[in-house]
C-alpha cells in the first residue's frame, strides 16, 4: 500500500500539448455558517476536448466544484479561467449561456415541449425561430431521438433515458465549448445507463467538448474519463488517467476508495478492436460443413466455425477446436466494446468464449476465457 501524502498527487495536470480549457487555481468554498471548507485550495486544469470525471464519497465537494465552474456557486477565494480568460467575476448569467449543463433526470422544464427545452439557450441568445427549430431537430438526431416523434412531446411523455438524452441535447444547443455534467446517468437503470454511456462517448467523438463530469460510479469514471479527479472531503487526492488511478493509487485514501476489483475494472480500458483475436470461419445455416461459405478446406480442426443466418450473423457454433460445439452457447459482443463487456457477456451467457462481431453483426474473431488468464495479445501498433 502506498504512503499517505500531504499533497494531492497531480500526475498529469496537462493534456499532451492541448491547451487547458478549464483551470481552477487555489479555489476554495466555505459555505455561510460553516467553518470547514466544502472545497479547499483546489488546483485543477482540464485540457481542451477531454472528459474529466470528478469522483469521491458523498459530501466531498464534487457538485460544489462543478457549480463553481459556471458560478451557480460563488467561490470564496481563488480564480477560475475558461479558455485562458478569468471568469471569476464576469456576469454569471452570461457565463452560463456559454457552458452546457446537464443534471440528473435531464432537469427539463415540464411545461415546455422537447423542442422548446432544447431551444432555451438559443432563444436567450436571440436566435430566430427557424434556426432554433433546425438546431433542435439536428440535436434530436444526434442523441438518437426521431425529431418528428419527439419534438412536440412534453418531458413527462418521455422515459428517463429519453429525458436524459434531451438534457444532453439541450446542453449542446448553443454549441458551448464546455459542458458540466452532474451525475447525468445516476437515476437510470443499469442497462439503459450503459447504452447512454456508449452514446455519450460516440457524441463526444463528434463534438469534442471539454467536459467536467460528476459521478458516484467508479466503473463509469473509468469508462468515460480521460482523467479522474478523486476527492476526499474538500480535497483533491489524485488527478490522473484511469489506468494510473487503478494501478497506482496516490495514497491510502484513493487505494481504499478504488478498493478491490481494480484488475477487473481495468478490463474496461482494453478495447476489443485492439486485440489479436482467434480466427473464426462461418458456414451459412443449412449448408454442410465442407461446403460452407468462408470455410477453407482442412482448416476447421484448428479454427472455430460459426453457423450464420442469412444476414451473416453467427447463431451457433458448428465446430470448436477443443470443445463440444453443440454444447457451447454462442454469445456475441460488439468489437466497439471492451474486454470488460466481453467478460460480462460470457458470464451472463455461461459461455467460455465469445464471438466478437462488427457493426453489422458479422463475426470478426473469438475471445476465449483462457485468454484472460493466459495474457491478452494486442495487435501491432496498439499498446
Ligand atoms: N448550500 C449549501 N449550504 C451549506 N453547505 C452546503 C451547501 N451545499 C453543499 N454543502 C455542503 O458542502 C459539502 C460538499 O457538498 P457537495 O454537494 O459539493 O458534495 P458532493 O460530493 O457533490 O456530494 P454528493 O455526492 O452527496 O452529491 C457537504 O458537506 C455539504 O453538506
TrEMBL record:
TM region positions: none
Domain ABC transporter: 22-258
One Pfam match: CBS
Residues in CBS domain copies: 326-383
EC number: 7.6.2.9
Example GO molecular function: ABC-type quaternary ammonium compound transporting activity
Family: Belongs to the ABC transporter superfamily.
Protein's name according to its UniProt entry: ABC-type quaternary amine transporter
Amino acid at each position: 500500500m502506498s504512503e499517505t501524502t500531504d499533497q494531492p498527487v497531480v500526475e498529469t495536470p496537462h493534456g499532451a500539448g492541448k491547451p487547458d480549457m478549464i483551470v481552477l487555481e487555489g479555489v476554495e468554498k466555505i459555505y455561510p455558517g460553516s467553518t470547514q471548507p466544502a472545497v479547499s485550495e483546489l488546483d485543477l486544469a482540464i485540457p481542451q476536448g477531454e472528459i474529466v470525471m470528478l469522483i469521491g464519497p458523498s459530501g466531498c465537494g464534487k457538485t460544489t466544484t462543478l457549480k463553481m465552474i459556471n458560478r451557480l456557486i460563488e467561490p470564496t477565494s481563488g480564480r477560475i479561467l475558461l479558455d485562458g480568460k478569468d471568469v471569476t467575476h464576469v456576469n454569471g448569467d452570461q457565463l452560463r449561456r456559454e457552458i452546457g449543463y446537464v443534471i440528473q433526470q435531464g432537469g427539463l422544464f415540464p411545461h415546455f415541449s422537447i423542442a422548446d427545452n432544447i431551444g432555451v439557450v438559443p432563444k436567450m441568445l436571440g436566435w430566430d425561430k427557424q434556426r432554433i427549430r433546425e438546431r433542435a431537430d439536428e440535436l434530436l438526431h444526434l442523441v438518437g431521438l426521431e425529431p418528428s416523434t419527439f419534438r412536440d412531446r412534453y418531458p413527462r411523455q418521455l422515459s428517463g433515458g429519453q429525458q436524459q438524452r434531451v438534457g444532453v441535447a439541450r446542453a449542446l444547443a448553443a454549441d458551448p465549448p464546455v459542458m458540466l455534467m452532474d451525475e447525468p446517468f445516476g437515476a437510470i437503470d443499469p442497462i439503459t445507463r450503459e447504452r447512454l454511456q456508449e452514446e455519450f462517448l460516440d457524441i463526444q467523438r463528434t463534438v469534442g467538448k471539454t467536459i467536467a463530469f460528476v459521478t458516484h460510479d467508479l466503473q463509469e469514471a473509468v469508462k468515460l474519463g480521460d482523467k479522474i479527479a478523486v476527492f476526499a472531503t474538500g480535497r483533491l487526492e489524485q488527478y490522473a488517467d484511469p489506468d494510473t488511478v487503478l494501478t497506482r493509487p496516490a495514497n491510502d485514501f484513493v487505494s481504499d476508495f478504488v478498493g478491490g476489483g481494480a484488475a477487473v475494472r481495468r478490463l474496461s480500458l482494453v478495447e476489443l478492436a485492439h486485440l489479436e483475436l482467434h480466427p473464426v470461419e462461418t458456414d451459412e445455416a443449412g449448408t454442410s460443413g465442407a461446403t460452407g461459405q468462408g470455410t477453407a478446406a482442412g482448416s476447421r480442426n484448428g479454427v472455430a466455425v460459426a453457423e450464420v443466418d442469412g444476414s451473416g450473423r453467427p447463431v451457433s457454433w458448428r465446430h470448436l477446436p477443443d470443445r463440444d460445439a453443440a454444447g457451447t452457447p454462442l454469445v456475441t459482443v460488439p468489437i466497439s466494446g471492451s474486454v470488460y463487456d466481453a467478460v460480462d457477456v460470457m458470464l451472463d451467457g455461461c459461455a467460455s468464449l465469445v464471438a466478437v462481431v462488427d457493426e453489422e453483426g458479422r463475426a470478426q474473431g473469438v475471445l476465449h476465457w483462457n485468454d484472460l488468464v493466459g495474457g491478452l495479445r494486442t495487435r501491432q501498433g496498439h499498446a
